[in-house]
C-alpha cells in the first residue's frame, strides 16, 4: 500500500501510464548527456596536447572575433588590416568587469556584452552600405523605413526570389552573428576567471599601454593606437538619433511658415500665363555625369548635340547647378525639396511636409486657376497620396500610360515611351487652359542595365518594340558587381534620358512650351565617387525670348551644359527664385 501511494503521488496528471511513457525517455536523455560528457573528458585525457591546442585555438578565435567587432570600421575604404592594429578601451574595460564579478553576474554580463557587439557590428555594416550607396551613415531614427524600399528595389532589379533570399539571409546572418559573439564573450569571461592572476596582470598592462598611447597621441597605420572606436560609434549614432528627433519638431514649425503661402492667385506667376510649363526630373542626373572623366565625354557630346538640335528648332536654354538634399537615392526627397522650397533631406521631414499645406511650385500653378495640372510618373506602381500635396489635378502612373513592353530592371518603361504616351494622352490634346506638367523620368535609375535604345517615334506603339532591346541588354547582376561598368552604363543611361527628352521637345514643343529639367540627386557613391558633391544640373528651355530674359540675373550658362563655374544654389532656394522671376509677389503666411 505505501508503494502504491508513492507511485500515485508521483504520477503525472495523465496517470501512471503517461509517466511510464515519459520517464524512460528522460532517463535516456540524461544518460546520453552524461555519456557525451564522459566521452569528451575521456578524449581530453587520452589526447592532452590536442585538447590543449583546441582550447587555445578556440580562445584565440573568440578573442579575434571580439577585437574585430570592437575595431570594425563603418566604411569600406577603412576596412584595411591597419584598422585592426589598435588597443580598444572597451576590451580593457570588459576584462576588468569580468574579473570583478562572481560567476552568475559574470555570465550575464558576458551575454549582454556579446549582444552589444552584435548591435555594434550590425550598425557598422549598415553604415558601410549607406555610405557606399547614399554617401552617408545609417540613421536609426530615420532609415528603417528605407529597408522595405531597398527590398522592393532588389525584387524589381534581380527578382522576387533574390529579394526574399536576401532578406532571409540578413536575418539569419544577424542571428548567427549574435550566437557566435555571445559564445565568444562567454568563453573569454570563463577563461579570464580560471586564470584570474595572469588576466589581472594583463589587464593592468593593457590599460597602462592604452593610457600612455592616448596621452602621447601615438599612432600606427594612420590611426591612434589607443582606440575607443566602439564607444564612439555608439555615441555618434545615439547623438544622430537625438538630433533627428529634435529636428523633426523644429522642421514642423518651419514648414508652417511660407513666404508665398498667402499670395493671392492673381499675383502668382503672372509672367507665365498662357505657357505650357513642364517640370521634368531625370533620375540620378548629377554633376558627375558632366564632369567625371569616364562619363563626361559621352554625356557632354549628347548635351552639345541636343543644344544645337534645339536651337535649330527655335529653342534656347540656360543651365546652372542645384545642390540636392539627397544623394544616391530617395529621389522623392529631391523632388519635394525643389518644389516646396524646404530642405527635405530625410523621410520624417518628407512625411511632415506632405501632411501639411505648404505651397509647392506645382500647386502654385493650380492655385492661379489658369492652368490644368498633371503628373506623369511611370515609376509609381501603387497609391500615391502626395498627389494632392503637389497640387495635381490628375496623375498618370505606371498603369495609366498603356505600356505593354518589358520592364528595364527597376524602370517600368523607357523614357521615350513615357514621353510619347504623355503627348498622346495629355500634352497633345486640345484644352481650355494651358498645362503645367510634373514628369519623372526613370530610365537612368540604377542598376543601369539593361538600358533602352532610341527607336523611331512613330514605331513606339504599345512598347512591344522594346522586347528585343531588353533581351539583348546587359544583365543587372553583371553591372552591379563591376564599378567600372556601372559608371560607363550610368553615363549611357543619362545620354538616353536627355536624348529622349530633348527629341520630344523638338518634335512636340510649341512657341508656348517652357521646359525645366533637372536631376534629383547624384548617382550612388560607388559611381560618383567618395568625395562627390551633391550638385545636379538644372536647365530652362523655351522659344519665347521673354521667358529666358526673366532669368538673365541668374547668370546661368547658355545651352544645356552648365559651366563648371556656373552659380550653385541650394535646391530649396529654387522655388522662391522661380516664383519671383516670373512675377509672383510674396505674401507670407504665419507659422
From TrEMBL:
Gene3D superfamilies attached to this UniProt entry: Alkaline Phosphatase, subunit A
Residues annotated as transmembrane: 53-72, 78-100, 107-126, 158-182, 203-226
Origin organism lineage: Bacteria, Bacillati, Actinomycetota, Actinomycetes, Kitasatosporales
Positions with biased composition (Polar residues): 1-11
Region of interest (Disordered), residue spans: 1-25
The UniProt record lists the keyword Transmembrane: yes
InterPro entries linked to this entry: Alkaline_phosphatase_core_sf
Sorted UniProt keywords: Membrane, Transmembrane, Transmembrane helix
Protein name (database record): CDP-alcohol phosphatidyltransferase
Amino acid at each position: 500500500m505505501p508503494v502504491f501511494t508513492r507511485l500515485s503521488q508521483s504520477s503525472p496528471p495523465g496517470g501512471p501510464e503517461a509517466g511510464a511513457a515519459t520517464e524512460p525517455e528522460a532517463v535516456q536523455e540524461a544518460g546520453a548527456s552524461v555519456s557525451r560528457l564522459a566521452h569528451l573528458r575521456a578524449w581530453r585525457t587520452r589526447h592532452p596536447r590536442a585538447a590543449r591546442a583546441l582550447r587555445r585555438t578556440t580562445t584565440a578565435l573568440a578573442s579575434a572575433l571580439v577585437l574585430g567587432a570592437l575595431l570594425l570600421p563603418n566604411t569600406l575604404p577603412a576596412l584595411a588590416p591597419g584598422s585592426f592594429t589598435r588597443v580598444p578601451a572597451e576590451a580593457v574595460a570588459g576584462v576588468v568587469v569580468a574579473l570583478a564579478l562572481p560567476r552568475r553576474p559574470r555570465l550575464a554580463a558576458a551575454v549582454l556584452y556579446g549582444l552589444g557587439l552584435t548591435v555594434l557590428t550590425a550598425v557598422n555594416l549598415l553604415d558601410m552600405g549607406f555610405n557606399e550607396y547614399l554617401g552617408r551613415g545609417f540613421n536609426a531614427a530615420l532609415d528603417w523605413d528605407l529597408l522595405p524600399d531597398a527590398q522592393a528595389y532588389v525584387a524589381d532589379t534581380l527578382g522576387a526570389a533574390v529579394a526574399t533570399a536576401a532578406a532571409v539571409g540578413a536575418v539569419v546572418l544577424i542571428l548567427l552573428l549574435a550566437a557566435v559573439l555571445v559564445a565568444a564573450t562567454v568563453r573569454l569571461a570563463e577563461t579570464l576567471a580560471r586564470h584570474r592572476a595572469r588576466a589581472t596582470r594583463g589587464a593592468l598592462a593593457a590599460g597602462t599601454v592604452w593610457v600612455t598611447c592616448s596621452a602621447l597621441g601615438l599612432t600606427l597605420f594612420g590611426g591612434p593606437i589607443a582606440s575607443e572606436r566602439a564607444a564612439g560609434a555608439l555615441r555618434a549614432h545615439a547623438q544622430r538619433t537625438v538630433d533627428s528627433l529634435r529636428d523633426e519638431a523644429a522642421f514642423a514649425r518651419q514648414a508652417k511658415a511660407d513666404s508665398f503661402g498667402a499670395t493671392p492667385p492673381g499675383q502668382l506667376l503672372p509672367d507665365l500665363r498662357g505657357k505650357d510649363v513642364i517640370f521634368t526630373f531625370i533620375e540620378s542626373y548629377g554633376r558627375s555625369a558632366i564632369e567625371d572623366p569616364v562619363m563626361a565625354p559621352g554625356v557632354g557630346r549628347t548635351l552639345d548635340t541636343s543644344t544645337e538640335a534645339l536651337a535649330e528648332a527655335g529653342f534656347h536654354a540656360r543651365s546652372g547647378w542645384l545642390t540636392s538634399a539627397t544623394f544616391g537615392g530617395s529621389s522623392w526627397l529631391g523632388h519635394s525639396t525643389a518644389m516646396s522650397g524646404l530642405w527635405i533631406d530625410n523621410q520624417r521631414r518628407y512625411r511632415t511636409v506632405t501632411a501639411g499645406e505648404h505651397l509647392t511650385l506645382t500647386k502654385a500653378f493650380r492655385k492661379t486657376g489658369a492652368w490644368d495640372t498633371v503628373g506623369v510618373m511611370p515609376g509609381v506602381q501603387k497609391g500615391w497620396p502626395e498627389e494632392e500635396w503637389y497640387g495635381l489635378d490628375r496623375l498618370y502612373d505606371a498603369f495609366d500610360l498603356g505600356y505593354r513592353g518589358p520592364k528595364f530592371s527597376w524602370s517600368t518603361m523607357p523614357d521615350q515611351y513615357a514621353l510619347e504616351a504623355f503627348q498622346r494622352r495629355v500634352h497633345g490634346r486640345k484644352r481650355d487652359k494651358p498645362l503645367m506638367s510634373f514628369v519623372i523620368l526613370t530610365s537612368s535609375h540604377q542598376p543601369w542595365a539593361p538600358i533602352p535604345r532610341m527607336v523611331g517615334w512613330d514605331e513606339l506603339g504599345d512598347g512591344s518594340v522594346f522586347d528585343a532591346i531588353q533581351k539583348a541588354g546587359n544583365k543587372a547582376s553583371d553591372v552591379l558587381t563591376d564599378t567600372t561598368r556601372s559608371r560607363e552604363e550610368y553615363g549611357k543611361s543619362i545620354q538616353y534620358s536627355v536624348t529622349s527628352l530633348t527629341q520630344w521637345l523638338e518634335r512636340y514643343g510649341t512657341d508656348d512650351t517652357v521646359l525645366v529639367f533637372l536631376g534629383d540627386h547624384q548617382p550612388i557613391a560607388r559611381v560618383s565617387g567618395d568625395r562627390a558633391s551633391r550638385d545636379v544640373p538644372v536647365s530652362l528651355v523655351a522659344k519665347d525670348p521673354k521667358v529666358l530674359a526673366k532669368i538673365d540675373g541668374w547668370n546661368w550658362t547658355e545651352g544645356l551644359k552648365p559651366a563648371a563655374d556656373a552659380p550653385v544654389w541650394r535646391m530649396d532656394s529654387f522655388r522662391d527664385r522661380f516664383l519671383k522671376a516670373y512675377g509672383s509677389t510674396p505674401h507670407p503666411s504665419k507659422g
